[in-house]
UniProtKB/TrEMBL annotation:
<dbReference type="GO" id="GO:0009446">
    <property type="term" value="P:putrescine biosynthetic process"/>
</dbReference>
<dbReference type="GO" id="GO:0047632">
    <property type="term" value="F:agmatine deiminase activity"/>
</dbReference>
<feature type="region of interest" description="Disordered">
    <location>
        <begin position="20"/>
        <end position="56"/>
    </location>
</feature>
<protein>
    <submittedName>
        <fullName>Agmatine deiminase family protein</fullName>
    </submittedName>
</protein>
<dbReference type="InterPro" id="IPR007466">
    <property type="entry name" value="Peptidyl-Arg-deiminase_porph"/>
</dbReference>
<keyword id="KW-0378">Hydrolase</keyword>
<dbReference type="InterPro" id="IPR006311">
    <property type="entry name" value="TAT_signal"/>
</dbReference>
<dbReference type="GO" id="GO:0004668">
    <property type="term" value="F:protein-arginine deiminase activity"/>
</dbReference>
<dbReference type="Pfam" id="PF04371">
    <property type="entry name" value="PAD_porph"/>
</dbReference>
């Protein structure tokens, strides 16, 4: 997951940085473009009292977005097939709302079928996990945290996507909480019981939060999502468009249990295997908000996946938990695919495990989780 297939729009940016960019990570060896979001006052009072539930909490629906030709260019047919397949699958378990630019609505409806609600809304790209709001629960029901999406530190055009969170919340008549920091949903992983897991590389980052210390960002995050404990892992900065989001590395399957994407033991040593080693060391000694040590479960990455681009996202932890199921990728490594499904099935008893091919999405450096955002039920 190190080279983006979305070159058309940001080719000039990629050239300036000395390499291609990926939705999740890309080798370029350069520092991210400068930038950062506004710290203007919230539309709502500070988010104290709000809580970001874990992904297994029951959902009212899932939000997604339809990919655009200006981003994906010659890969548009393949990535639209992937997104439509994901949307149709999720719709078997819960309602799906898919945002699409006006001219694309008809083709999106044809591809996704009548089980998916397609809503005309301006979008740049498909990465709803990052551009959409974080839906939090509180005494007044549901609100949405707007993380001031800025194209992963101004690495990609985001004029429309920067407004997606606001538009969703306005359309749903939900309170908008404007975060005092800049980030993306894929940068945050919670257990729903007060513990937040994050990579420093994607948040303590001058492309998003210039001049802000880790302590500053941690205080803001705790207030926004209702966390009392933040577990930081180092991550990898400047090697991909997201600066290594946590949802491509480690996830909570339940309070006290973290699933980590584990490289093959024969994988060459590089910044990604080093990031895994560092994260594993941190998680092995970490305690959660309840003061308990974590149980760390490895989810081995596939090996035999044929000829893929250097940016291909070959990790299973970028799965998505829906009502009654877990939707996860299938890479064509039959042994690894089967083993990953068995592990996830044990981690989520009572849920169906549905594996989907998402080859073009993976070549863009992202996965199923990156393309979705859940709206939780109250209670």
């Amino acid at each position: 997951m190190r080279i983006s297939r979305r070159r058309t729009l940001h080719a000039a940016v990629a050239a300036a940085l000395g390499g291609g960019l990926s939705a999740c990570r890309t080798p370029d060896g350069s520092e991210p473009a400068p930038g950062g979001g506004s710290t203007a006052p919230s539309d709502a009072p500070p988010a104290g009292g709000w809580r970001l539930p874990d992904e297994a909490h029951p959902h009212r629906s899932t939000y997604m977005a339809w990919p655009t030709r200006k981003i994906w260019g010659p890969d548009i047919a393949g990535v639209r097939d992937d997104i439509a397949r994901i949307a149709r699958t999720i719709a078997e378990f819960e309602p799906v709302v898919l945002l699409a630019n006006g001219p694309d609505v008809k083709v999106a409806r044809q591809a996704c079928g009548s089980g998916v609600e397609v809503v005309p809304t301006p979008v740049d790209d498909l990465w709803m996990r990052d551009s959409g709001p974080l839906f939090v629960l509180g005494p007044d029901g549901i609100a949405g945290v707007d993380l001031n999406f800025n194209g992963w530190g101004n690495k990609q055009d985001h004029g429309r996507d920067s407004q997606v969170a606001r538009r969703i919340l306005d359309d749903a008549h939900l309170t908008r909480v404007k975060a005092p920091i800049t980030g993306e949903g894929g940068a945050l992983e919670v257990d729903g019981r007060g513990t937040l897991l994050a990579t420093e590389s994607s948040l303590v980052n001058d492309a998003r939060n210039p001049g802000r210390s880790r302590d500053d960002i941690e205080r803001a995050l705790k207030n926004l999502v209702g966390a009392t404990t933040v577990i930081w892992v180092k991550g990898v900065k400047g090697k991909d468009i997201t600066d290594y989001h946590i949802d491509a590395l480690a996830r909570f399957s339940e309070p006290g249990v973290v699933v980590i994407s584990a490289p093959d033991e024969d994988a060459p040593r590089d910044v990604w295997t080093e990031a895994y080693d560092q994260a594993r060391e941190v998680l092995d000694r970490a305690v959660d908000a309840r003061g308990k040590r974590l149980d760390v479960v490895e989810l081995p990455e596939p090996v035999h996946i044929g000829r893929r681009g250097d940016g291909f996202l070959a990790c299973y932890v970028n799965y998505y938990v829906v009502n009654g199921a877990v939707v996860m990728p299938r890479f064509g490594d039959k042994k690894a695919d089967s083993n990953a499904a068995s592990i996830v099935r044990e981690l989520y008893p009572g849920r169906d495990v549905v594996q989907l091919p998402v080859d073009t999405l993976g070549e863009g450096g992202g996965g199923i989780h990156c393309s979705t955002q859940q709206l939780p039920k109250v209670g």
